[in-house]
Design goal:
Number of strands: 7
Oligomer: single chain
Structural class: alpha/beta
CATH superfamily: Vaccinia Virus protein VP39
Distance between the termini: 31 Å
Strand content: 15-25%
Strand order of the largest sheet: 3-2-1-4-5-7-6
Number of domains: 1
Order of helices and strands: HHEHEHEEHEHHHEE
Number of helices: 8
Largest sheet: 7 strands, mixed
């Protein structure tokens, strides 16, 4: 059975993920940075530094949540960022942050489904996803949509949790994710399921070489992975062919 937030719910995974993020959106940023000890900010910065080399003018931030990745992407000079998410609750928090930082001219947040993007083919120079691909109901469909809206020669970066392989990080990580994180998340977010779903979704996600293979199946080229902090997270880099394809 696929990992879902609310196991007794009859909603699709997509519907449950939307409900979950709407529920936890008021406290999401607090918990996110608390539970990661702010290391997530370092990971985002490193990913954006890799993206800078390609000088993208238009960037799509898929599953933007409260907009942290989109905000980080504004460090790329001249870039315009569109962030999309299915959770209106998360987007409301993100819009407030963006307005407070004076970034409304650089970032546009929109409610949209990552597996059915409303943008035309070849719309963006680059795409990014931070801790969102494991929430896709249909991973291949979501990645195919991102491929479709990228311009020929476009670049795609994914930042996602992964499973450490080496002792003792593997054991410590498993204990933290299965015991500490759900308990703290439950107390602070008031949603008993959200931070139980997180480790389950990470465990289910096809990380590392498996994810690189899926990117290749979708059509991405030159796919690479860069493990972060002993393999707790991974940055993936993928490229779209610089020729327009009939497969769009």
């Amino acid at each position: 059975m696929a990992a879902v937030p609310y196991k007794k719910s009859r909603q699709s995974k997509k519907g449950q993920v939307e409900e979950m993020f709407n529920n936890i959106s008021p406290r999401y940023d607090l918990l996110n940075h608390l539970l990661s000890a702010n290391v997530d900010k370092i990971w985002r910065r490193k990913t954006i530094n890799r993206l800078k080399r390609f000088n993208p003018e238009t960037i799509l931030d898929v599953a933007t949540g409260t907009g942290d990745f989109a905000i980080a992407a504004t460090k790329i000079s001249g870039a315009k960022i569109v962030g999309i998410d299915i959770s209106e609750g998360m987007l409301e928090v993100g819009r407030a942050k963006i307005s407070k930082r004076g970034l409304t001219e650089k970032i546009d947040l929109q409610k949209a489904d990552s597996e059915n993007l409303h943008f035309e083919n070849y719309s963006f120079d680059a795409a990014i996803v931070g801790f969102g691909v494991r929430n896709f109901e249909n991973l291949t469909q979501g990645l195919s949509e991102i491929y479709r809206v990228l311009k020929p020669g476009g670049v795609f970066f994914v930042l996602e949790f992964s499973k450490p392989k080496k002792w003792p990080v593997k054991q410590l990580y498993k204990f933290y994710f299965s015991k500490i994180l759900p308990a703290v998340g439950r107390m602070v977010s008031k949603d008993a399921n959200a931070y139980t779903y997180l480790p389950e979704s990470v465990n289910e996600f096809p990380d590392g070489d498996k994810f690189l293979s899926i990117l290749a199946e979708v059509g991405f080229l030159e796919n690479k992975s860069y493990p972060q902090t002993f393999g707790i997270a991974t940055v993936y880099e993928a490229h779209k062919t610089n020729k327009k394809s009939v497969k769009q």
